[in-house]
Amino acid sequence: MHGARLSAIRVSHAKALGASEGARTVLGSRAAAVERRIMAASAQDEPGQEPRRLTGRLRAQREQGHWVLWPEGAARPELVWFAALTDRAGAGDPAHSGRGATRTFVAGGRRVLLRHYRRGGMARHIAADGYLWLGLKRTRPWRELAVLAHLAAAGLAVPMPVGARVSRSRSGLIYRGDLITGYLADAPTVSSLLGAGALLPAHWQRMGTAIAQFHRAGVDHADLNAHNILIDASDRVHLIDFDRARLRRPGRWRERNLARLRRSLDRLAAGGLGRFAEADWQRLLAAYRPA
Questions:
Q1: Tens-place pLDDT, residues 215-249
Q2: Residue 14, in any domain of the structure
Q3: Does residue 223 carry a catalytic annotation?
Q4: Which of 131, 149, 182 is the last residue of a domain?
Q5: What's the pTM value of the predicted model, to 2 decimals?
Q6: 79/192 Cα distance (integer angstroms)
Q7: Per-residue b/e over 85-114, b at no fewer than 16 CB within 10 Å?
Q8: For 45, 65, 72, 237, which has the most beta carbons within 10 A of its beta carbon?
C-alpha cells in the first residue's frame, strides 16, 4: 500500500514537473518572440541606422583620482578649473545651464562655461548626479566632448570643446562628471528671445537652415528645444547641450528632432511665455533642407 502511494506521488510529481517545464518553454518562446518583434520594429523604424564614426579624438590623463579629458591637439585643462562650481569667483549662468549646475569663469585667457552633469525627470530623486560606470568611453562627459570636438572640427556652430572630468566613486560602480566649453557671449536662447518678442522672420529662417546643417552632418540632438538654440549678435544660430547626442545615418530621427522643437515652442506659447504662430514654424520648415 505504501509502495503504491509512493508511486502515485512520483507520477504526480513528474506530471507537475512536466507542466512546469512546458510552461517555462512556452514563456521562453513567447519572450523570444517579443524580443524578435521589438528588434524587427526597430529595424523597420531606422533601416540601416548604423552610427557614423566620430572623427574628433580625445586624450585622457589620470590626476588625483580623476580622469581629465580634452580634445587631441588642444591644451590640457587644469584639474583646478573643475573646482569652479564651489568657487565664488565664478558666476552662474542659468540661461545656458540645461539640467546641470553651471559656472562661468576665465581660464587660459578665455571665458568658459563649466557644467556639472545632473539627471532629469524622476531619476533625479534616486541619483541626482551619479551614473553607472561602464567604462571611460561610455561616460557622458567623454561622449559629449567627443561629439563637440567632431562638430567643431566640421565648422558647425557649437560651443568650443575645452575639456571634461570624470570622477569615480570609491566603490568604482558610480561616476560623476563635468564638462567645460567655451562661453557664448551675447547669445540669448530662443526661449528668452521668444518671451521678449525679439524673434524676427529672418531668425526663423536661420534656425531652419542651421538645423538642416546639423542634420546633414548626422547629428541626432536628443533634446532639441527652444532652450538649447542660441542666436548671437550677428544672428548666427548655435546649438548647445549635446548630452546623449548621436551621429547617425539619415532616418526618422530628423522628424523626431523637429517634432520635439515644435512641442517646446507650443508649450512656451501656451504658458504665456512668448508669441509663436504657425507662420513662424512654416518659415523654419521652408528653410530646412537637410538633403
A1: 999 999 999 999 999 999 999 999 999 999 999 99
A2: no
A3: yes
A4: 182
A5: 0.77
A6: 33
A7: beeeebeeeeebbbbbbbbbbebeeeebbb
A8: 237
